[in-house]
Amino acid sequence: PTKGNTAQAIVTFTQKDTGVHMQATVTGLTPGLHAMHIHEYGDCGCDDAACAGDHFNPTGMPHAGPTDTKRHAGDLGNITADDNGNATYTALDTHITLNGPHAIIGRTIIIHANADDFTTQPNGNAGARIGCGVIGYAQ
Which H or E run includes 24? Predict the structure, then answer.
């Protein structure tokens, strides 16, 4: 979690022939929608996670929703937290990879305080960064 927040998550990325399968379990959220994005730098060392940089966007596209063809590679959409602040997320993404020019290894996954509106540039009006994790390899 970033300073003053309680968000925690385990997010697994698995490369498949058809894209990257993502599965997340998140706790410590306020009930409702929260944006989740991959950001460009693997740095969660500052209090507000601003050191993670902007959304991962190797092709210079505008911000959009996860099902849009033209979008940041890091635009994953929203997760929904239940009344207890827990959320799960499962998706297959074709804009990211675990190797090559669209690789996410060494970048960060950020959970935001608000929902992504999929329109506002450059970040979907998603609000503060409440959780940050560096994406790495696991056994």
Answer: strand 19-27
Q: What is the per-residue DSSP string for 72-115?
A: -TTEEEEEEE-TTS-EEEEEEESS-BSSSTTB-TTSEEEEESS-
Give the SS3 label for residue 52: helix
Residues with a catalytic annotation lie at 37, 39, 55, 63, 72, 75, 112, 129
Span 46-68, pLDDT tens digits: 999 999 999 999 999 999 999 99
Q: Which two tokens stand for residue 86?
A: 């827990």
Which residues is 97 bridged to in the sheet? 103
pTM of the predicted model, to two decimals?
0.94
